[in-house]
């Protein structure tokens, strides 16, 4: 009886959400367009691997646990999706029957010459029982795609046996930076010399921040421990722990989350070239903050608010933050806020993400409502966002998969009982 | 319709709740050391008063006659620290001058003096404890350990490893890169160079430029000293004859790999008089100083390298294996039955308070009360306390 009393209210609440999902919601909605990844319907996840190049092409990494992921790009001028290839093949291990290159797990980087750099990551870790074994994952690769030739070049393994879970490109020093998983080493690939450098461990595997921030001077930042910021200075080639902390919610609030989800790091940061500050979101409660790396002796962090659906804000059950944060060209932050603990097939339930807009001029947040496409299907959760030069906002996430008559039903996974597949979502701020 | 969905969702939610509550699953805990047997200590008093990241790789541990555990680190600077098992925390003592690495090179005399071999300068340093627990814990960033410089052991060489014969008052060591075997008399303050154990860099790739020698030294119960050198051969310093000799036995290796074989870790069983060793190929072996025979005891782990071996309760031997690019695992060996037990990754989960996994182990020691101290060797390193069982 006690169990029933405990479970029922939660069940009822979730059932209402579920009902809203299947029956259509009366809540406020915001219309988004979408494009499917044709021929790649079985891709099952996506994290952060979304970058808009200067020519408008949108580069995307698609994950496939237990198999090779794919890198693709969307060309909006031709409304065309192009598959750059299976990551196993691009990394030269297509027939080796070893731990697959299942993901691009970080932003792509566009060099001054237009080449697109990216890094690969593993999908399954088997409780690390296969780590550093002959059948295990051989290590994440650095790769570069040349849009002029259409060729992708393998630049070699950046981290033996380990995935590159976080990465970012710096145009000042022409480097790709990364964090290894699981050992949490800070590494970088120097494009001019073709050398990878390992600067050592920065954190524990369960608390690695998923975004590396790079300022306009080539300094690199991340978080470790209890939300503390570290800095890598390329001029001295040294890592320094700064006496700066982002706002976090302390651990200890059990939410039924996956153990692997860190709760004390920044989830996503974006660099504002105009104001020369970072804007970021913490993982556990979605606290929004700014980080000015050049103010004061070490920099200044300010809490700006909370990027959470208003009905959930300040509550115990605010969902784990998504990676879908981007700075628009209109001095506004755009964020796809999950309405459930979302992690593709590891999600806790089904609900449409809300599009939250934080106006940096007024410090006001607006909830534009549930993100839904024209036929009413909702964005079940997004894990990346990027802004094009024309102001278009892109997200990559999951949407309900629909069978097509006469075709095999291909989908990436299921959230609850609902099959999903990945899609590129498109939002035009001026068209709201 | 709604009721049907509600029931279905209830099953989903209950299943999810059972799957995890921000804690690890039991199947994952199965791969790590039992959590009631391990804990970790920061190297100081965090967040500020700790040995800095990048200087905290623990590469030497030694137990003093009074039971205190001394350790030294490697990195941008080396630091000395002490842990009293009574207190249970790590007290940083300061950095070691002109030193970036101290590798299995801390030994403690019968009088309690701490001798440190600098891998950088090659000098032997002496630290005399003066009740460090009365000192305020500080970052010690600018405080050097008050040491006496006893001079350079071998001209132009760093100190690679040390061992001590407390009864005789002699310290023995290996130098790097030249693999000289040397001794130091505590009473006379005199160094003696007894020869080289690996005169040539073994064949290999062009980037392989190291002479190969053991990472540790072993003393038998009579005070003779053993190391490994070229082709994995064991060398003996005969205490009575005052002579270094190459024995006719090699540390176990996969055939053909002898030139690159070294003994990573030694442990002397003072009861049986046997010496146990762990090799770079990951073999455990037994060496009988009396018969000068080596017995290969097999491989406790799938991995290469054995970073440390220590005696445990009921005659068991505990060890840590794994390469610098892998994940260290703990194991035990029971000589009476020849049985190994795989104990899992060295990982401490005290979420929500702290959690940390060690991948690279630099040193292992056992305290007087049986606690096994495991030193991590990374940019950020912790000292692990493992409580063995029979």
List keywords for this structure.
heterodimer; A: 432 residues; mainly beta; Neuraminidase; 5-stranded mixed β-sheet; 5-stranded antiparallel β-sheet; 6% helix; 42% strand; disordered N terminus; B: 390 residues; Methylamine Dehydrogenase, Chain H; 4-stranded antiparallel β-sheet; 32 strands
Give the overall silhouette of chain A. globular
Q: What is the number of helices of chain B? A: 2
Unreliably modeled segments of chain A? 1-19
Query: What does the overall shape of chain B look like?
Result: globular
CATH superfamily of the domain at 47-201 in chain A: Kelch-type beta propeller
Number of β-strand runs of chain A: 30
List the quaternary state of the chains.
Answer: heterodimer
Strand content of chain B: 35-45%
- CATH fold node name of the domain at 47-201 in chain A: Neuraminidase
Tell me the number of helical segments of chain A per DSSP (H or I, 4 or more residues long): 2
Report what the structure shows.
The complex is a heterodimer of chains A (432) and B (390). Chain A is built from two helices and 30 strands. By secondary structure, chain A is mainly beta. Chain A has a domain at 47-201: Neuraminidase, CATH 2.120.10. In chain A, a hairpin with a 4-residue loop joins β23 and β24. The longest helix of chain A is centred in the N-terminal third of the chain and has 22 residues, at 2-23. The termini of chain A are far apart. Chain B is mainly beta and 390 residues long. Chain B contains two helices and 32 strands. Chain B has helices at 2-19, 26-29, and strands at 38-41, 44-45, 49-50, 57-63, 69-74, 79-83, 90-95, 106-108, 114-117, 123-127, 147-152, 158-165, 170-176, 180-185, 190-196, 218-219, 225-228, 233-238, 243-250, 263-268, 275-279, 284-288, 293-296, 306-311, 317-321, 329-334, 339-345, 347-350, 354-357, 361-366, 372-376, 383-386. In chain B, β2 (44-45) and β3 form a beta hairpin. The longest helix of chain B is centred in the first third of the chain and has 18 residues, at 2-19. Chain B is globular, with a radius of gyration of 22 Å. Chain B starts with a helix and ends with a strand. The chains are: A mainly beta (432), B mainly beta (390). The interface between A and B is large, with 51 and 43 residues.
């Amino acid at each position: 009886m006690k169990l029933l009393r405990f479970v029922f209210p939660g069940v009822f609440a979730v059932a209402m959400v579920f009902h809203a999902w299947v029956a259509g919601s009366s809540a406020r909605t915001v219309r988004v367009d979408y494009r499917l990844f044709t021929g790649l319907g079985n891709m099952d996840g996506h994290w952060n691997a979304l970058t808009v190049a200067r020519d408008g092409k949108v580069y995307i990494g698609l994950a496939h646990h237990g198999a090779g992921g794919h890198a693709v790009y969307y060309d909006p001028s031709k409304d065309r999706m192009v598959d750059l290839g299976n990551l196993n093949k691009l990394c030269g291990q297509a027939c080796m029957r070893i731990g697959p290159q299942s993901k691009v797990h970080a932003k792509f980087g566009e060099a001054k010459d237009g080449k697109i750099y990216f890094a690969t990551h593993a999908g399954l870790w088997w409780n690390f029982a296969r780590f550093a074994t002959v059948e295990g994952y051989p290590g994440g690769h650095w790769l570069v795609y040349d849009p002029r030739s259409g060729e992708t070049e393998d630049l070699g393994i950046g981290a033996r046996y380990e995935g590159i879970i976080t990465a970012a490109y710096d145009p000042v020093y022409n480097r790709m930076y990364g964090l290894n998983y699981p050992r949490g080493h800070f590494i970088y690939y120097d494009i001019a010399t073709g050398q990878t450098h390992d600067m050592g461990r920065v954190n524990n595997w369960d608390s690695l921040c998923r975004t590396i921030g790079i300022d306009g001077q080539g300094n690199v930042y991340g978080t470790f421990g209890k939300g503390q910021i570290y800095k890598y200075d390329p001029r001295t080639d040294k890592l320094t722990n700064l006496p700066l902390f982002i706002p976090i919610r302390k651990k200890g609030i059990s939410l039924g989350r996956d153990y692997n989800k860190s709760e004390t790091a920044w989830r996503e940061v974006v660099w504002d070239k105009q104001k020369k500050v970072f804007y970021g979101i913490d993982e556990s409660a979605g606290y929004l903050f700014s980080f000015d790396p050049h103010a004061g002796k070490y920099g200044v962090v300010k809490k700006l608010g909370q990027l959470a659906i208003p009905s959930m804000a300040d509550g115990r059950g605010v969902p784990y933050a998504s990676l879908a944060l981007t700075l628009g060209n209109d001095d506004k932050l755009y964020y796809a806020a999950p309405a459930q603990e979302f992690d593709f097939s590891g999600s806790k339930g089904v609900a449409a993400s809300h599009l939250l807009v934080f106006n940096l001029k007024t410090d006001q947040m607006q909830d534009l409502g549930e993100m839904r496409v024209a036929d009413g299907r909702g964005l079940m959760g997004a894990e990346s966002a990027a802004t094009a030069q024309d102001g278009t906002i892109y997200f990559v996430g999951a949407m309900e998969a629909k069978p097509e008559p006469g075709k095999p039903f291909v989908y990436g996974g299921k959230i609850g009982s609902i099959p999903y597949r990945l899609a590129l979502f498109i939002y035009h701020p001026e068209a709201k | 319709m709604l009721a049907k969905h509600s029931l279905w969702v209830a099953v989903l939610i209950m299943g999810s709740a059972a799957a995890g509550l921000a804690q690890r699953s039991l199947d994952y805990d199965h791969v790590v050391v039992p959590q009631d047997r391990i804990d970790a200590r920061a190297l100081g008093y965090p967040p500020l008063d700790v040995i800095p990241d990048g200087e905290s790789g623990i590469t030497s541990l030694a137990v003093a006659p009074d039971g205190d555990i001394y350790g030294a680190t490697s990195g941008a600077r080396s630091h000395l620290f002490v842990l009293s098992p009574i207190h249970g925390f790590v007290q940083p003592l300061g950095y070691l001058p002109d030193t970036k690495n101290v590798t299995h090179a801390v030994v403690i005399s019968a009088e309690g003096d701490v001798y440190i071999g600098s891998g950088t300068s090659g000098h032997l340093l002496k630290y005399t404890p003066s009740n460090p627990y009365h000192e305020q814990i500080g970052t010690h960033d600018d405080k050097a350990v008050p040491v006496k410089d006893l001079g350079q052991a071998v001209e132009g060489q760093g100190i690679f490893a040390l061992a001590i014969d407390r009864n005789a008052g002699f310290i023995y060591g290996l130098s790097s890169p030249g693999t000289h075997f040397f001794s130091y008399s505590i009473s006379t303050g005199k160094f003696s160079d007894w020869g080289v154990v690996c005169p040539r860099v073994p064949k290999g790739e062009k980037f392989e430029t190291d002479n190969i020698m053991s990472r540790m030294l072993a003393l038998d119960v009579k005070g003779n000293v053993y190391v490994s050198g070229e082709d994995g051969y064991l060398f003996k310093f005969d205490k009575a004859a005052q002579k270094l000799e190459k024995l006719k036995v090699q540390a176990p290796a996969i055939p053909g790999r002898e030139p690159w074989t070294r003994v990573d870790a030694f442990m002397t069983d003072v009861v049986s008089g046997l010496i146990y060793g762990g090799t770079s190929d990951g073999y455990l072996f037994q060496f009988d100083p009396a018969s000068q025979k080596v017995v290969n005891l097999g491989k406790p782990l799938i991995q290469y390298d054995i970073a440390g071996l220590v005696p445990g309760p009921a005659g068991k031997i505990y060890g840590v294996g794994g390469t610098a690019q892998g994940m260290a695992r703990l194991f035990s060996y029971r000589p009476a039955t020849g049985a190994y037990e795989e104990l899992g990754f060295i990982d401490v989960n005290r979420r929500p308070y702290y959690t940390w996994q060690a991948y690279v182990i630099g040193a292992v020691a056992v305290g007087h009360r049986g606690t096994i101290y495991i030193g991590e060797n990374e940019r950020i390193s912790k000292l692990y306390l493992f409580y063995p069982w029979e």
